[in-house]
Structure formats: C-alpha cells, structure tokens
Design a protein that fits this description.
By secondary structure, the chain is α/β, with parallel strands linked by helices. It has one domain (3-197): Vaccinia Virus protein VP39 (Rossmann fold, 3-Layer(aba) Sandwich), CATH 3.40.50. The protein has 7 helices and 9 strands, in the order H-H-H-E-H-E-H-E-E-H-E-E-E-H-E-E. A 7-stranded mixed β-sheet has the order 3-2-1-4-5-9-8, with helices on both faces. Strands 6-7 form a two-stranded antiparallel sheet. Helix 6 links the parallel strand 4 and strand 5 (129-140). The mean pLDDT is 94.
Length: 198
C-alpha cells in the first residue's frame, strides 16, 4: 500500500464512529434503483468498501447475498454489527477470493486509490465479475488527485473513467452526475457509473 492509502485507512480507523453516524442513514434509494434491477434475484454482490454497512444491509434486506469488505478494521466492527455478518478487513489490492460475483458495488470507495493504481484495480475487479456482471462505482467529479482533510482522493470525469477501463473487459453502460446526498453537501458533484462486463 502507498503512504496515501495507509493515511486514509488511519483516518477511517480514528473517525469510525463519526463516519458511521454521518453515513448510516443517508437515503441511497435513487442509486439502488439504477443498480439492483440489473442483478439477478438472490444474486451475489461484492460491497467493495462497505463503510458503515448501510448498502450491504439494504442489499441483504432485499434478498441478495453479500460479501462486504473494508480496509478499516474499526469501520468493519461497526458494519458487521449492523449487517449481522462478518466484514472482511482487507484493502482492494490484497483482496483475494475464489468467487465470481453477479454485481460489484463500489460506492465512494475506489476514489481513495491513487490514479496510477486504478486501471489495475478495474482489471482485477472485472475478473471477479461473471460475464455480463454489473459494476457500480462513484467518484467525486473532476480531475484532481490530492489529499483533502486527512484522506487521499482521486477525482474522475467521464473521459478519465473511460481511460481507466482499458484492458478490463468493462464498458460504461451508463454514467450520470449527482449532488452529494448528505445534508449541507449539495455543492459537491459525483460521477456515478454503471459498468458492464462484456
């Protein structure tokens, strides 16, 4: 892991309760409706960077099988209690499992990966998807890569996301821009994308 990745994980470990409290009740229904209808009933979803466990819980409630992972051990404790099953503590690069998923959900999580490592991560995740599998990801909208408030962020726009998919078997089925769903954050823009494995 890079220094910036380690520092970001440390931030989440030190601020786990605050992050949990500020994200657990955010209404994500508008994003779920873009993703879940594309997953077969009772399908298996990888929640990559599950944070508070909010999204894993929503998927489990709707009958999907979920594997939840997060790099923050402290957040994983909160999330596992909330969803009633273990959360695997691992960073994306170290995650290794003999499983093929119907869908991957990476909501505001891959944005902490340095730009130089993103393409390889998309290639890795594409190998964990079944053919025609669905991949949701979101990034802060823009073209910056820098540290903000103790965490490292890689921002993407439509063109840079497309560039990161080279060699991955993934293509952009849909992309759209939203404002932040958290209170008092409506000035922040997000790039959302539904990717599909060819």
């Amino acid at each position: 892991m890079t220094y910036s990745t380690n520092k970001t994980i440390l931030f989440y470990n030190e601020n786990a309760q605050d992050f949990y409290d500020s994200t657990i009740n955010v209404d994500m229904a508008s994003l779920y409706k873009e993703f879940l209808p594309l997953i077969q009933p009772l399908g298996h979803i990888l929640d990559a960077g599950c944070g508070s466990g909010r999204d894993s819980n929503a998927f489990l409630t709707q009958g999907f099988k979920v594997t939840a992972i997060d790099a923050s051990a402290e957040l994983a404790v909160h999330a596992s209690k909330f969803i009633g099953q273990p959360v695997i503590v691992t960073d994306f690069q170290s995650f290794n499992i003999d499983e093929v998923y119907d869908g991957i959900w990476a909501c505001a999580s891959m944005l902490h990966i340095p730009l130089s490592e993103l393409n390889q991560l998309f290639i890795k995740f594409s190998q964990l998807l079944r053919k025609q599998g669905v991949f949701y990801c979101s990034f802060k909208y823009g073209a910056d890569s820098k540290e903000r408030n103790g965490r490292f962020f890689t921002d993407l726009d439509e063109l840079s996301l497309h560039d990161q998919l080279v060699g991955s078997e993934l293509y952009i089925e849909k992309s759209w821009i939203t404002t932040d769903l958290r209170p008092n954050r409506s000035n922040e823009k997000w790039l959302n994308a539904i990717l599909r494995k060819a």
